[in-house]
Amino acid sequence: MILRLGLLLLIFPLGVQAADLTMPFPATITFTETRALGSHRIAIGPFDETLPSVTVEGTITRQIWQLTGAETTLQILAPLREQLRDDGWTQVFACSTRVCGGFDFRFEIDVTPAPQMFVDLADFSYLAVQKSDAWTTLLVSRSGDLGYVQATTVDPDGTVEPAKSTSNAASPPSTPPIAPPTTTSDVAQALVAEGHAVLSDLAFATGSSDLTQDSYSSLESLAAFLRDNPSTTIALVGHTDAVGSAAGNIAISRRRAESARTLLTGRYGIAPGRIETQGVGFYAPIARNDTEAGRRTNRRVEVVITSTD
């Protein structure tokens, strides 16, 4: 559930001292997660052949925001960095875009996939700070008029509680549970478990949005899932490899999502109002773009559950 807040506070109740981070611009929280035991890879230097890093285990808390009003990533990051410093956190490593190592750096670090988090490979900043045994990392980027902040805290002592907000955010309304899938398809299982899935049999050539087969098992499974869950709405998100310009790839990725939507509504009878489309170009790769196999993997459409209201 997306909470629209005029001013957001992120509180990490750590065994050391709570870190209060106030978003410097109007913001919307798009993702929140706490895992009682997990691991987080933290970059402590720029990518140069390999990524200098430490992997810390413990309670993981992550939140992601979309912000409006910022013209640069530094306008977002600088006040957050200052707040952490004032709260007793020590900076271990900070970098921006090329200094970080560009694509190679972004590919090595832990990033929540689109549409929750977007990373512009030409405009992002990273910060890693430490207090006692606890670590916090910030990843900041922009796309168009929107800014994005991913904040991840890992506490080896396991004393981190789920992040709380001190604003007057309304409690999320109750929603019907998602029905168990009637098929054993990977798509249905992933949607139930994770809320998103790759439609892996929708294959595209570089620069193309054409779908030419008569049927696709992933769309058939998605249609069955949507029929089983009539209150669920979805977004189809198109992706590209890194060949070509950013603007051209954004347009192609949107057309790929729309091609899948056309089949889902026309051939499989799903109501158009339940499906939105987005295109994010090459900004959310799941494989390297310097091999043909990686580029082929990155040319894809993903489905994301947007609501069950």
UniProtKB/TrEMBL annotation:
<feature type="signal peptide">
    <location>
        <begin position="1"/>
        <end position="18"/>
    </location>
</feature>
<dbReference type="GO" id="GO:0009279">
    <property type="term" value="C:cell outer membrane"/>
</dbReference>
<protein>
    <submittedName>
        <fullName>Outer membrane protein OmpA</fullName>
    </submittedName>
</protein>
<dbReference type="Pfam" id="PF00691">
    <property type="entry name" value="OmpA"/>
</dbReference>
<keyword id="KW-0998">Cell outer membrane</keyword>
<dbReference type="InterPro" id="IPR050330">
    <property type="entry name" value="Bact_OuterMem_StrucFunc"/>
</dbReference>
<dbReference type="InterPro" id="IPR036737">
    <property type="entry name" value="OmpA-like_sf"/>
</dbReference>
<dbReference type="InterPro" id="IPR006664">
    <property type="entry name" value="OMP_bac"/>
</dbReference>
<feature type="domain" description="OmpA-like">
    <location>
        <begin position="192"/>
        <end position="309"/>
    </location>
</feature>
<keyword id="KW-0472">Membrane</keyword>
<dbReference type="InterPro" id="IPR006665">
    <property type="entry name" value="OmpA-like"/>
</dbReference>
<feature type="region of interest" description="Disordered">
    <location>
        <begin position="153"/>
        <end position="183"/>
    </location>
</feature>
<keyword id="KW-0732">Signal</keyword>
<feature type="compositionally biased region" description="Low complexity">
    <location>
        <begin position="162"/>
        <end position="172"/>
    </location>
</feature>
